Amino acid sequence: MKRILIMGSTGSIGTQALEIIRNNTDKFTAVGLTCRSRVDSLIEQIREFSPEAVSVGNSEDAARVQAEFPDLEVYYGDEGLVEIAGMECDIVLNSLMGISGLAPTYKAISCGRDIALANKETLVAGGALVTELCREKGVKLLPVDSEHSAIFQCLEGNGGSACGRAYREPEQTLNINREGAHFNLDLKINLKGGRQLYRPVRRILLTASGGPFRGRTIEEMRNVTIQQALNHPKWSMGSKITIDSATMMNKGLEVIEARWLFDVPADRIDIHVHPESIVHSMVEFCDGSVIAQMGLPDMKIPISLALNYPDRLDLPGDSLDFFTTGSALTFEKPDRKVFRCIDLAYAALEQGGSAPVVMNGANEELVAMFLAGKIGFLDIPETIEKVMDRMELTSPKTVDEILEIDREARRRAAVMVSDR
């Protein structure tokens, strides 16, 4: 029986995770739940799943929950998220939105908890810090994003555990070999008993649906409405990640996340637009072989794999019918002149240090402003670039330093918008 803490239990990932727990009560129990503002939904979840502790957004909501459930441990605010992240459990599913997921993840890893990560900003902003702590604590960092779960499964399909820098047993070592002009990521893992596992990786092929504006020109996107940007053709997600998908910043964030999860350099991570969303990502190995993970668009697959790793769960649902979909799989290069956020993410990863933090913070602020109707769609990449150009590059060493850089990037983005 795995004890699971779900951070962001009222969101899309959280509710699907609870559905998995509901259907597998012999395997999982939800011992902790958190939400920011959907307290009515959280109360219903408390009644059904009887967690030991919860965290909400503010003190007023905390008092309301505590009054209804006197024996429940109730936390609130950003401090509450960090506190509950240290509770006794087997795995923490982090499906929080944005940079708010970083500090709780770091606390959970510090306490030796395995992480099922659906919060990509944790690695975008704190990749070096988080992965170093994973190594120190021997913590598994299991991807929940459909693309990174696909890569994870492809690596496992080549034999053994998909062990990148962030996820491997403490007894294992990692050697990276660069030979000539061709980069082969040789994961040479020394397992107990002297057995060695080699996994040479040439490229990560990260797929993207293309979002709602695939094929559009810059001019066609100048007057994009909020409703149009939120109309994703394949996935049902929260508003922030849906806008990120529309700008394709989401794919840029995933490039940075993949770099830290699998220890692959940016120039070996290629984005392939795949509008059918059947191939969730691929890995090319040094002999030219490509392994792909395929399936219908269903987030319960990567969620269940992360929660039940290393075993798979029997999930109800439709099977992939290759007779109807197999002849319609297309792949395109992303139009990086139109979707400029992709190049901004690659540039941030190349610069390193605080650059990804600045980019991510500015993006979060600008997406919120777009959703509030304060700026236009194309203002998002244009202002991110200006913020990145004008902020000094530093090397943050702590979570607090990262969060301070994030706040400054948001402030500058807001000022640039107001000064136009």
Total number of strands: 14
Remind me, CATH topology of the domain at 2-139? Rossmann fold
Helix-strand makeup class: alpha/beta
Mean pLDDT over all positions? 89
Low-confidence spans: 160-198
Percentage of helical residues? 40-55%
Tell me the strand percentage band: 15-25%
For the record, the CATH architecture of the domain at 2-139 stands as 3-Layer(aba) Sandwich
Please give the order of strands in the largest beta sheet.
4-3-2-1-5-6-7
From the N-terminal CA to the C-terminal CA, the straight-line distance is 56 Å
Largest sheet: 7 strands, parallel
C-alpha geometry? globular
The total count of helices amounts to 16
Radius of gyration, CA atoms, in whole angstroms: 21 Å
Q: Which CATH first-tier class of the domain at 2-139 would you pick? A: Alpha Beta
Give the CATH H-level superfamily of the domain at 2-139: NAD(P)-binding Rossmann-like Domain
Descriptive account of the structure:
- Helix content is 43%, strand content 17%.
- A 7-stranded parallel β-sheet has the order 4-3-2-1-5-6-7, with helices on both faces. Strands 10, 11, 12, 13 and 14 form a 5-stranded mixed β-sheet that branches.
- The chain is an alpha/beta fold and 420 residues long.
- The model is unreliable at 160-198 (pLDDT under 50).
- The chain has helices spanning 12-22, 39-49, 59-68, 77-85, 102-110, 121-137, 146-157, 226-229, 239-247, 249-262, 300-308, 322-325, 341-351, 355-371, 379-390, 399-418; strands spanning 2-7, 28-34, 53-56, 73-76, 91-94, 114-117, 141-143, 178-179, 182-183, 185-190, 196-208, 269-273, 279-285, 290-294.
- Among the domains are: 2-139, NAD(P)-binding Rossmann-like Domain (Rossmann fold), CATH 3.40.50.720; 352-418, RNA polymerase sigma factor, region 2, helix turn helix motif (Rna Polymerase Sigma Factor, Chain: A, Orthogonal Bundle).
